[in-house]
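Q: Could you fold this chain for me?
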Amino acid sequence: MNVSTTVWVATIGILIAAFIFDFVVVDARPHVFGPKQAARWVVAYIIGALLFAVFVWNTYGAEYGQQFLAGWITEYSLSVDNLFVFIVLMSSFAVPEMLKHRVLLIGVAIAIVLRGILIVVGAAAISRFTATFYVFAVFLFYTAVSVWRSHDEEPDPEGNGLIRLVEKYVPTTKEYVDTKFTVKKDGKRFITPLFVVILAVGTTDLLFALDSIPAVFGLTQEPYLVFAANAFALMGLRQLYFLLDGLLAKIIYLARGLAIILGFIAIKLFLEAVEGTTDLHPPHVTIAQSLMFIATVLGVTVITSLIAVRRSPELAMQSEIAQAKEESAEHRGEAIDHLGTEDSQT
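A: Sure. Below is the predicted structure, expressed as structure tokens.
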């Protein structure tokens, strides 16, 4: 797949334009982002991803169009896990309802930039060492087992170590001041909780990318498609946050479905690594077969979840979303308590 510099620049330009439009028009006046507005934007981004798939299909061929679709669907599904952590972070930093959309908007922009760097590193490793697929396969298989077994790990309500360093060494204030990132007090500049929580959202996402990016590389080795799949998934992910009380809350078997998909991609990567590093000729899994498998697993996951919840509504109370909300209530305001001008050092 030969992607010209012009196409790369155009793609990144359109992505930047979408963020600018979102920031200048949609979020011009911070407001409570309702489910109806969020649903419209989710549909818009899904349509955008499908149109992009058509563009890739017509320009570069059906094989690459299917690779993008498989990568985007996988990335979008895996990114739902981010939302559970975002719930806890938003509560821990006591983010006002009217500022939540802005936090996700800018936080996701940071995440896409950081993921872009990770994709470049991953692509370079794959191009130089075919054996990298072995590493990705083992890592994805381990992740699949972990996802199947757990989700009992409690998210760090402060985000990550970087955020703790910022809180420790940078003068901060506990109060939100409209949409300002910094505020001046007694001639001294302080950062506000808005800046800290946006940084937490953007950098914490990178931990999830360590799982999801190798998964997408297992479906396509084209950096352009990996980047596009990540960008479209994260752009649509922001709006899903405001739909957590709807359909997503009822998909109680999502973790199991994602674990099966990760396991499948791990096996696919392992077979490709064997073919590329030995004289053996293991079975080849086509991208069409991969796309069909992923779509089928997700479809079965959604249908069985909805049937189970319909028969036993109490199961929804045991879902990951319900657990995340419970944890968010436990940690409400906890990160804010760690901020403050007295404890920060310059």
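A (continued): The chain has twelve helices and two strands.
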